[in-house]
């Protein structure tokens, strides 16, 4: 019977020998009182037989195969080799565990969740504005006097520019006022010269207006003569229209005559073609009979002459159709020309009437020019009176 350890289900032989060490799983505690389970690779046990006392508890789960029974010896062996062997095995296991833990911890990083106490301070800028740039990050530590953000300066730059523009405008107004003071002394002299010039201009305007009246009055009789001439051209244009319209029926009659000629020519062509077919058949038949000796040569020659006459008649009929069609086209062109003559005559009537209207407008224009010239004289006379009054006022101001 093999004894079995209830705490460790490994099997032991009678002398307490153990072998075939398998996989190890070790839990490593860390500094924050938390336990992280880490799996280490397989560590093969040395292939040797180690004798340990039966009551030794190793604390490691492993499978031990029983050794074959050994004969009992009366001599008692020393336990020191077994103790040294157990210590050596423990040193190997501890070294392997330390090496693998060093490899794992060199490529892994442990993290912890923590909450840091902070203080919130309300800050504000000296002026209102839009934030243009933030110079710090969230939760960043800052110190007194450190620049945290920058405001957008464009609104204040615009206000500065507006203030500078207002200052420049005020400066220019002051300069203009100073210049006006200098020009005030020269105003009276300038007004006097201007008034004298206005008087001269008014006199010249009166002369120009009087000449315009004379010219406009001369244009009225010429415009009236143009109207009379245009009105006389209207009846002549109407007579041309009537004459052109009378030519249309004649041209249409020629078209009808040409169409009838085409019909007659086509009938002649039909008859000529029928005669051509008959004479051609007779000629071929007589030619065959003459070769057989059934008829004389004179009959063949007469048939051939009749066939040639039929050919000439057919050609003449075709030419007659072409000539009839040409006459029809010419007659249609005559109708078109007559219609164009009517349209041209009607256009002449319109032009004559338009010429009358233009001549009447010319009369109205000439009369309007006379009225404008008379109004110009009135205006020039009024301007002359105003200029004389201005001259008197300027002279009075200069005396003061």
Structure description:
By secondary structure, this protein is mainly alpha-helical. It has two domains: 1-65 and 82-98, no CATH class; 196-399, Helix Hairpins (Orthogonal Bundle). Helices cover 68% and strands 5% of the residues. The chain has three helices and six strands, in the order E-E-E-E-H-E-E-H-H. The protein has helices at residues 80-107, 154-292, 297-399, and strands at residues 17-18, 26-29, 35-38, 50-51, 131-134, 149-151. The strands form three sheets. Strands 1-4 form a two-stranded antiparallel sheet. It has a two-stranded antiparallel sheet with strand order 2-3. Strands 5-6 form a two-stranded antiparallel sheet. Strand 2 and strand 3 (35-38) form a beta hairpin. Helix 2 (154-292) packs antiparallel against helix 3 (297-399). The longest helix has 139 residues, at 154-292. The termini are far apart. Residues 1-72 have low confidence and may be disordered.
């Amino acid at each position: 019977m093999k004894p079995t350890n209830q705490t460790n289900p490994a099997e032991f032989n009678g002398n307490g020998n153990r072998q075939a060490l398998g996989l190890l799983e070790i839990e490593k505690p860390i500094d924050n009182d938390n336990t992280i389970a880490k799996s280490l690779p397989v560590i093969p046990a040395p292939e040797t037989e180690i004798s340990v006392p039966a009551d030794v508890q190793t604390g490691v789960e492993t499978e031990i195969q029983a050794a074959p029974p050994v004969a009992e010896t009366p001599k008692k062996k020393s336990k020191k080799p077994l103790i040294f062997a157990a210590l050596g095995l423990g040193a190997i296991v501890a070294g392997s565990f330390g090496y693998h833990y060093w490899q794992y911890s060199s490529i892994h990083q442990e993290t912890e969740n923590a909450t840091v106490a902070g203080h919130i301070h309300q800050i504000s800028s000296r002026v209102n504005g839009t934030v243009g740039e933030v110079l710090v990050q969230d939760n960043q530590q800052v110190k007194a006097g450190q620049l945290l953000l920058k405001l957008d300066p464009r609104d204040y730059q615009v206000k500065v520019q507006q203030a500078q523009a207002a200052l420049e405008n005020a400066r220019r107004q002051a300069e203009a006022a100073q210049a006006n003071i200098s020009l005030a002394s020269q105003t009276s002299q300038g007004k006097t010269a201007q008034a004298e010039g206005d008087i001269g201009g008014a006199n010249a305007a009166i002369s120009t207006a009087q000449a315009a009246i004379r010219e406009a009055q001369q244009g009225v009789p010429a415009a009236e003569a143009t109207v009379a001439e245009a009105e006389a051209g209207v009846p002549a244009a109407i007579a041309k229209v009537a004459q052109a319209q009378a030519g249309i029926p004649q041209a249409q009659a020629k078209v009808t005559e040409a169409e009838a000629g085409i019909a007659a020519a086509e009938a002649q062509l039909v008859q000529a073609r029928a005669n051509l077919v008959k004479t051609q058949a007779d000629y071929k038949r007589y030619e065959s009979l003459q070769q057989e000796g059934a008829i004389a040569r004179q009959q063949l020659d007469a048939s051939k002459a009749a066939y040639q006459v039929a050919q000439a008649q057919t050609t003449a009929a075709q030419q007659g159709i072409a000539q009839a069609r040409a006459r029809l086209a010419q007659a249609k062109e005559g109708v078109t020309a007559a219609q164009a003559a009517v349209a041209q005559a009607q256009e002449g009537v319109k032009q004559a009437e338009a010429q009358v209207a233009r001549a009447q407008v010319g009369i109205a224009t000439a009369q309007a020019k006379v009225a404008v010239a008379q109004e110009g004289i009135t205006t020039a006379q009024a301007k002359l009176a105003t200029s004389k009054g201005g001259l008197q006022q300027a002279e009075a101001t200069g005396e003061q």
